[in-house]
Design a protein that fits this description.
The complex is a heterotrimer of chains A (123), B (139) and C (772). Chain A is mostly helical. Chain A has four helices and no strands. Chain A is 68% helix and 0% strand. The relative contact order of chain A is 0.12. Chain C has a domain of 248 residues. Chain C has 31 helices and two strands. In chain C, β1 and β2 form a beta hairpin. The N terminus of chain C is likely disordered. Chains A and C meet through α1, α2, α3 and α4 of A and α23, α24, α25, α26 and α27 of C.
Chain lengths: 123, 139, 772
């Protein structure tokens, strides 16, 4: 199981990096969604895996619960990840409306055209 | 989306989801649920309604500006933190009162963590719904 | 180095004088003056106890864990410095009031002078070495602000920055040196370190400690090769130069060397470091002083020379050397401060500081002339001035130094002869004789501005005639502090005909000769200097420019503005650094306790991997979104299977909301473009980085999951969730109770993100770009 899940993490990581390095901003966004998922999965996985037994206390039963700490971490991380991706999404939309391209290289060029002083050395 | 079926179902659905979200929030301390999940369910309900009826109706349903909702949520969570300060406890220490407690049963437990969770709930509902409303309105 | 520093008279011209001095300047002046007087009186009142070698002390805790105490201790040496700082402070504050008058930043100058004075007093009174360092740096900062007072002048800014960088850099070395010294001696109290005596010289780190501390002292006191900042700092207004660059700040390094001599001194390293640096400084600056036309620069170089001479004498631990150093320190403070103030008056009245253009000022400025001539005579070492006693002691000390006496004697004679020449220049070329070529008619300055130089010059005369005025009360306790033993000190004008007197006669003769051939001499020196590589100031320039161009080069290289470029760097560094760590320290993997794979999980994982691969190669948006959804739901299923119900529900809800949001936005965005062939090379590189990142991540994750976990925190939550927080859902209890502060922060992040999205959506962008 450990090996299988580590492989899963590796594959997902590779795909998300591949997407993030893409020159298309939408693909980059998909990569961002994916890498948040990978991060959550890694935190959850390295916190130790226990089948069943959710961390809910039942009177009289001294059960072995799943590790509650990474669960709490991941839960908030998911919601924050949602906020992050939403913001990036809107940012991409606005950038497209302003510059008219989703190619990140062309965006860089467009920015340099707008601020010709930007690339000059600080005095 | 001007589908009569979807529109009708969405009205029914939003009521159910909002009710369910409050239920999730309430029982979150002892069963699966809580402010984050409750807030997401409520926001999802509102968004389903908005897909059917349009952003103007979403605003009507919320009654208050989503940004106000977020602010109220943050203040509520802060309030839950400040209350214990009045009794010389650390910020955000849980404080409890038990209604109808007997020797065997501690009765209905109400505490500042519940207030805090309500704050979380409001921030999530306001934040997520606010984002979607803003997008729907502008695009 | 900048050859000429333009006079600043124009900035504070006469038109401003007629306007009244504003109230804030008056308040600042009153505060500065009152503080200076209060300190001066307080120090005076302690003379009798301290000269009986009973120090005044004050201790209170500040940061006990770091050994930092507010520990103050005023002994003979501190008293001498304290009196000089506060006494000259009084005169400089009064002088500045007359000098700056209605200048728009007059109040700022007075506050800065006060701040500087307090830092300086703190520095010489600190008994804790961390405290000493703090005051040391405070003097650096306040002097930066004072030198750059005329901040609209780029030259002043450059000089201020140079002084800050050089002394600040030395300060860093000093900090390390002081901490090592404290560690080596086991105490942070200076008095205890000194009481322990020269034992530190046996310590294995002694050479490092000595080097670092001397770096601090040499930069502060402008010793070769760090001397260049002091003449450049003459961009400061004259009263600031008079205060900082003659009597106080530049003496901080001297103070430190005097203070630490009982502990660090007495070794060969100490002797050679101080005598070589001091000797080179003294000779070099003598030559540089003679070639200046600007009177202020001339004074600045003689200050460097004086500092070099004192350093030279501190090299030895003989009583006569310490006595010579202390006496010369006092002499120098008196006459040099007076002369700087005199130059300020001349500059203010005539608009120039070039002695070739000035002459016979006695006709216009009689009182200033009195101060100038008296101070110059003391500088020349003519009897009966204190300067004469100082010079005699220097010769006595030089003759007594056991090693290389003739070299030191020659240095001292050369330096003193040069001072005679400069003093004669002051007297006969500027004040009593010479031809003036300036057009405007100079006026005598107000009493505020002549009282300082006249009093200081008179002090130099009176203490020469009646040396007992200062011998037992100030000089002797200071000498005792330096040597850490009680010393008897006797100062007198007449010693009979002996070695020092003969040397004095020779000095005056050479000095007079130099004076008459001054043009020739300065021409010769100019020729010599042109042949020598003058490295210090240039090296500073090269270093500074190099750092700046390195920084901007790096910034241009790294901050390209290209997203994919940044990410390529980030992930490459991730892969390389983690791989290096793994190779250096392999993860121990124990495959004995693996959990069996259930069919459900195998199925889910296969689906997820497949979806991920589809995502990677998909070129339509709908397919990509579906693949993303499959992966997200798969993650939710995994959460559910491994007992994380809350997380699974959250994940599912968020997945749903993602789809809604992305669908809403994607309608407005174009489809994926066709893959271009030209991007293939880059595609291989990206693929390599992606695969490498995946492999590295697999190894790390596997390594961590095969390592036993520390469950302490989780066990605490499990044990206390119901008992203390009355909740059965441990995850929720962690979120709203145990770690509620974290959650509050996270909720704030969600709120901020939502606000930002709402605000950003409403921004109207123009198709040509938001800026145009």
């Amino acid at each position: 199981m450990e090996i299988l899940l580590s492989l899963l993490v590796g594959v997902l990581m590779s795909v998300s990096v591949w997407m993030l390095l893409s020159r298309n901003l939408v693909k980059f966004l998909f990569g961002l969604v994916l890498i948040s998922n990978v991060a959550n999965l890694i935190i959850f996985k390295v916190g130790g895996l226990t089948m069943g037994a959710p961390p809910l206390i039942v009177d009289g039963i001294a059960a072995e619960y799943a590790n509650s700490l990474p669960q709490a971490l991941v839960l908030t991380a998911i919601v924050i990840g949602f906020g992050l991706v939403s913001f990036t999404l809107v940012l991409a939309l606005k950038a497209y409306q302003a510059i008219g391209t989703l190619n990140v290289d062309e965006m860089t060029l467009a920015e340099k055209r707008q601020d010709p002083d930007d690339s000059s050395e600080p005095s | 989306m001007n589908s009569l079926i979807f529109s009708t179902i969405s009205r029914l659905l939003v009521g159910l989801m909002l009710l369910f979200s409050v239920f999730l929030l309430w029982r979150g301390h002892n069963e699966p649920g809580g402010g984050f999940i409750g807030g997401l369910v409520a926001a999802a309900g509102i968004i389903v309604y908005g897909l059917a009826e349009g952003p103007a109706m979403m605003r009507k349903l919320l009654r208050v500006n989503p940004r106000t909702l977020v602010l109220i949520g943050l203040l509520t969570a802060m309030f839950a933190g400040i209350l214990p300060l009045l009794q010389d406890n650390a910020f955000l220490t849980g404080m409890w009162m038990f209604i109808g407690a007997t020797a065997t049963d501690k009765g209905l437990a109400l505490g500042t963590p519940l207030i805090f969770d309500i704050g979380v709930y409001l921030v999530v509902v306001g934040g997520v719904a606010g984002m979607v409303i803003a997008l729907e309105e502008e695009l | 180095m900048p050859a000429e520093i333009s006079p600043q008279t124009n900035a504070y011209s006469n038109s401003e004088i007629r306007q009244g001095i504003n109230n804030s300047a008056k308040i600042a002046f009153a505060c500065a003056l009152a503080s200076a007087i209060a300190f001066f009186v307080a120090y005076l009142s302690q003379i009798s106890t301290i000269s009986a070698e009973i120090p005044w002390t004050f201790n209170t805790q500040w940061v006990p864990r770091l050994g930092v105490e507010l520990a103050f201790r005023v002994d003979g040496l501190s008293l001498l410095f304290g009196l000089l700082i506060s006494g000259i402070g009084i005169l400089v504050v009064i002088y500045s009031y007359g000098y700056f008058k209605a200048h728009k930043s007059h109040d700022r100058l007075q506050w800065l002078l006060l701040a500087f004075m307090l830092s300086m007093l703190g520095l010489v009174s600190s008994d804790n070495i961390i405290l000493l360092f703090i005051f040391w740096e405070l003097t650096t900062i306040t002097s930066f602000l004072l030198v750059g007072f005329d901040h609209e002048n780029s030259n002043a800014r450059r000089s201020a920055l140079q002084a800050l960088l050089v002394t600040g850099g030395g300060g860093l070395a000093l900090l390390v040196g002081l901490i090592m010294l404290a560690q080596a001696s086991g105490t942070y109290l200076l008095s205890e370190i000194i009481a322990a005596g020269p034992a530190i010289a046996e310590h294995e780190h002694y050479p490092v400690i000595l080097t670092l501390i001397l770096l601090g002292a040499f930069t502060k006191s402008a010793q070769f090769p760090f001397h260049f900042w002091l003449p450049n700092a003459m961009a400061a207004p004259s009263p600031v130069s008079a205060y900082l660059h003659s009597a106080t700040m530049v003496k901080a390094g001297i103070y430190l060397m005097m203070r630490l001599q009982p502990s660090l001194g007495g070794t060969e390293e100490w002797f050679y470091a101080l005598s070589i640096a001091g000797g080179i400084t003294a000779v070099w600056s003598s030559m540089m002083a003679l070639k200046q036309n600007d009177l202020k620069l001339m004074l600045a170089w003689t200050t460097v020379m004086a500092l070099g001479t004192i350093t030279l004498f501190l090299a030895s631990n003989l009583q006569i050397a310490a006595l010579a150093a202390v006496t010369f320190l006092v002499v120098h403070a008196f006459y040099k401060c007076a002369l700087f103030l005199v130059i300020g008056n001349v500059d203010k009245s005539t608009g120039t500081r070039d002695f070739n253009k000035l002459g016979s000022l006695v006709r216009f400025m009689p009182i200033t002339t009195v101060g100038a001539v008296l101070a110059a005579l003391s500088m020349a070492g003519i009897p009966p001035f204190l300067g004469f006693i100082g010079k005699e002691l220097k010769y006595e000390g030089a003759l007594a130094l056991a090693e290389q006496p003739w070299l030191i004697v020659a240095t001292a004679v050369a330096a003193n002869a040069m001072m005679v020449a400069i003093a004669l220049t002051f007297i006969f070329r500027v004040f009593l004789g010479g031809q003036s070529t300036i057009t405007r008619e100079p006026k005598e300055v107000s009493v505020l501005m002549w009282i300082g130089p006249v009093l200081l010059a008179t002090a130099g005369l009176l203490s020469g005639i009646f040396p007992d005025l200062i011998a037992q009360s100030f000089i002797q306790p200071a000498v005792s502090s330096i040597l850490a033993t009680s010393s008897e000190v006797k100062l007198s004008l007449w010693h009979g005909v002996n070695g020092p007197l003969i040397l004095s006669v020779i000095t005056v003769a050479i000095g007079t000769l130099l004076f008459f051939k001054l043009n020739l001499v300065s021409q010769a020196i100019n020729n010599l200097v042109e042949k020598l590589p003058v490295i210090s100031d240039n090296a500073y320039e090269v270093l500074l420019n190099g750092t700046q161009s390195l920084a901007s080069g790096l910034t241009n290289r790294l901050q390209t503005g290209s997203l994919s470029h940044y990410l390529t760097i980030v992930f490459s560094v991730f892969v390389v650094s983690v791989t290096a760590t793994l190779l250096y320290q392999p993860v121990a993997m124990n495959f004995t306790n693996l959990t069996a794979v259930t069919p459900l999980i195998a199925l889910v994982v296969i689906f997820m991997m497949g979806a991920a691969l589809v995502l990677a190669f998909s070129n339509t948006r709908l397919l990509s979104i579906c693949a993303l959804g499959v992966v997200g739901s798969g993650v939710a299923v995994l959460f559910l299977v491994f007992g994380a119900i809350d997380v699974a529900i959250t994940q599912l809800m968020v997945e749903t909301l993602f789809v809604v949001l992305i669908a809403t936005v994607l309608i407005k965005l174009p489809r994926f473009p066709e893959q271009k062939n030209s991007a293939k090379g880059r595609g291989y590189r990206d693929a390599f980085i992606a695969i490498a990142a995946g492999v590295v991540m697999t190894i790390i994750t596997l390594g961590v999951s095969l390592t036993p976990l520390d469950m302490t925190v989780t066990e605490f939550f499990e044990a206390n969730s119901l008992v203390k927080a009355y909740g059965r859902n441990i995850v929720n209890v962690i979120l709203v109770d145990f770690r509620a502060l974290d959650t509050l922060g996270e909720v704030a992040v969600v709120a901020t993100a939502a606000m930002a999205v709402i605000a950003l959506v409403k921004v109207r962008v123009h198709p040509q770009g938001p800026h145009s």
